[in-house]
Amino acid sequence: GQNIDQPTEMTATEGAIVQINCTYQTSGFNGLFWYQQHAGEAPTFLSYNVLDGLEEKGRFSSFLSRSKGYSYLLLKELQMKDSASYLCAVMDSNYQLIWGAGTKLIIKP
Amino acid sequence: GAVVSQHPSRVICKSGTSVKIECRSLDFQATTMFWYRQFPKQSLMLMATSNEGSKATYEQGVEKDKFLINHASLTLSTLTVTSAHPEDSSFYICSARSPLGESSPLHFGNGTRLTVT
Hints:
The structure holds two protein chains of two kinds. Chain A is globular, with a radius of gyration of 13 Å. By secondary structure, chain A is mainly β. In chain A, the strands form two sheets. In chain A, strands 2, 4, 5, 9, 10 and 11 form a six-stranded mixed sheet that branches. Chain A has no helices and eleven strands. Chain B is mostly beta strands. Chain B has strands at 4-7, 10-13, 19-25, 32-38, 45-51, 57-58, 67-73, 76-81, 90-97, 106-108, 112-116. In chain B, strands 2, 4, 5, 6, 9, 10 and 11 form a seven-stranded mixed sheet that branches. In chain B, strands 1-3-8-7 form a four-stranded antiparallel sheet, with no helix packed on it. The interface between A and B is medium-sized, with 20 and 17 residues.
């Protein structure tokens, strides 16, 4: 079956760095997405990786290793507004998105 | 670009009534839209794929007669929850893929919080 694993919850301190991991097993691979979802709101797109390596976008970076079925989202200089759930999603060979359950990130002052 | 608008954002209805949720792509044409449901503290669950000009494709376990989907134009898809019951109370979110290809990211509407009393 297809499976996406990410931690349920993480806690970090304002100003610090946090890494949210995602491992996946899917039938085919056409890219991995990270989305941010604040409570009661719809997800917003953060990043897309289809090739191995690190993609940097401001305070957020996303890494992919296809051979390991592994990705991480790195958040630097954490701000209180970064408190949200972070969803990892993989697009399989049929271009269907397989969603992880999300990681709730709690930022403490 | 690639803005998706969803309406209403919040609706409360009585058990047994029907509710229609609209999803519009504002600045692009979406031949395919996706309808998701999300229960508290759970991930997104794909309900159905809405295809312009043809019947929607429903995921296993989703009742097509209860969740009616109409995609009459390239910019509008509607989801009607018929004979709603309290267990249908959930957060419903539509999305559309930006017109850059099949690997392009999904853009989501703001969601509709449905409460059935």
